[in-house]
Amino acid sequence: MTPNKEDYLKAINKLGGCDDLIANKKIADALHISPASVSEMLTKLEKEGAVEYVPYHGIRLTPAGKQQSAALLRNHRLWEVFLLRHLGYSWSEVHEEAELLEHVTSPRLAQSLDAFLKHPDFCPHGAAIPSTDGKIKAIPLRKLAQMSVQDTSTIRKVTEEKEFLNYLQERNIQIGSSFTVLSIEPYEGPITIKLADKQIVLSYKAACHIEVDA
């Protein structure tokens, strides 16, 4: 299977396509590709037995598609951990390199990499690393934007977007950081948190891309 096709399977998995039907538009938005191109590729993937199309409802992964996409996510997230821990990459730099490496990683190499890293559960951005059989460790989370004043929690997951990760890094916000919500402005206004004795003001949009302990 080509890297391009694999990227489609991975995107469908991340959108929830292991269990739910995903609209073509959502896939197009996630991959920044036209809906027509998505439809063309999904037709090919359906012929290969990787996805199942339900007319007027959407697409979901077949068991084979689930297995392939989980292996890709596993490869990707293991490489992100390796690049961060051992090659000096920042958490905003690892994604692009892992996008390349995930497609050329054999099951044996992935197994060796996992053992070398001492079997990490999460990537640097807090996303769970699938096991060899495709299972993902589920942890109840909520968005920081859903919290109330005086709530305390710990950051567990953030959206993998380079600009956003740099935004967080500038404010010394990391996975595992504990904080307290000090104030929330109305009408989706800024949210002020206290983290390591510092007050940090986050936009509502940023708070929607940060997940914390439920």
From TrEMBL:
Keyword check for Manganese: yes
GO cellular component term of the entry, any: cytoplasm
SMART domains found in the cross-reference section: FeoA, HTH_DTXR
Keywords, alphabetical: Activator, Cytoplasm, DNA-binding, Iron, Manganese, Repressor, Transcription, Transcription regulation
Subcellular localization(s) per the UniProt record: Cytoplasm
GO molecular function, one term: transition metal ion binding
Limits of the HTH dtxR-type domain: 1-62
Entries under InterPro entries matching the protein: DtxR_MntR_Metal-Reg, Fe-transptr_FeoA-like, Fe_dep_repressor, Fe_dep_repressor_sf, FeoA_core_dom, HTH_DTXR, Iron_dep_repressor, Transcriptional_repressor_C
UniProt keyword Protein transport, yes or no: no
Family: Belongs to the DtxR/MntR family.
Complex formation: Homodimer.
UniProt-recorded name of the protein: Manganese transport regulator
